[in-house]
Amino acid sequence: ALGDITGVQDQTVELDVADSKSQSVKLHPTATVTPCRVDGHDGTVVYTYAVKSAGETGATVTTDGTVTVKDAGTAVITVTATLSRKGKEALVKKKDVTLTVKSNKASAAEKKELQDEVASVAGQIADKDNYTAESYQKLQDAVDAANRLLSSGTASKQQIAAAKQAIADAKGKLVLKAETQSRRFELSRIL
Predict the structure, then answer these.
(1) Strands of the sheet with 60-61, listed across from one edge
(2) How far is 77 from 55, CA to CA, in rounded Å?
(3) Contact of 52 with 77, CB cutoff 8 Å
(4) Are 145 and 169 in contact (CB under 8 A)?
(5) Is 90 exceeded by the pLDDT of residue 35?
(6) How far apart are CA 24 and CA 27, in angstroms?
(7) pLDDT digit string, tens, across residues 116-151
(8) For the chain, how long is the longest CA-to-CA vector?
(9) Would you say 27 and 67 are in contact if contact means Cβ atoms under 8 Å apart?
């Protein structure tokens, strides 16, 4: 007889920003075999693995049970234990293992949002002479930092969010030179 598959359970995989491409997890299933001469088997259980659902994870699995994931999401891996018997139908047990993949890495969509934010201030960047040097420099610094982050390939969700916010803040605080000159003129009239 072939017992249930044990030794593998649902688990969570944490992808960090440093895991630039993927991370692997090795599954170690076991199934108990009850010796029985009548069954005509040698007690050898063969394990096979299949990706039932990769979801957004990009999960793949090798013949030795190594599961590789690339992105956050949920993957389901089916583990099959097969006990062959001489002259009889093999005994088979299956178990689905759910891998929940969490990631601090910025997604392609989050990176695209930052790229869009950079593009949204291209006009202000091109009109450097219309803004005070200090306010323009803050925007330029925020855009430069965002571009460095995007080209690094190791951006976290928090870093992308902070870069988007820095650009929005700097954009909101841009001061036109005309406004500054107008305020000076008004102050000189009052005084």
Answers:
(1) 23-26, 66-69, 60-61
(2) 11
(3) yes
(4) no
(5) no
(6) 10
(7) 999 999 888 888 888 999 999 999 999 999 999 999
(8) 110
(9) yes
What would the two tokens of residue 160 be?
């992308």
Percentage of the chain with pLDDT > 70? 86
pTM of the model: 0.62
Over range 82-106, report the average pLDDT.
87
Tell me the pLDDT band of 94, cut-offs 50, 70 and 90. Answer: very high
The DSSP annotation for the chain comes to -EEEEES---EEEEEPTT--S-EEEE---EEEE---TTTT--S-EEEEEEEEE-GGGT-EE-TTSEEEE-SSEEEEEEEEEEEEETTEEEEEEEEEEEEEEEE-BPPHHHHHHHHHHHHHTHHHHHTGGGB-HHHHHHHHHHHHHHHHHHHHS--BHHHHHHHHHHHHHHHHT--BHHHHHHHHHHHHHH-
42: Cβ contacts below 8 Å, ≥ 6 apart: none
- Tens digits of residue pLDDT in 57-79: 999 999 999 999 988 899 999 99
Q: How far apart are alpha carbons 17 and 156 in whole angstroms?
A: 6
Residue among 123, 174, 113, 166 nearest 144 (CA): 166
Residues whose CB falls within 8 Å of the CB of residue 93, separated by 6 or more in sequence, listed in order: 2, 3, 4, 5, 31, 80, 81
Supply the pLDDT for residue 70.
86
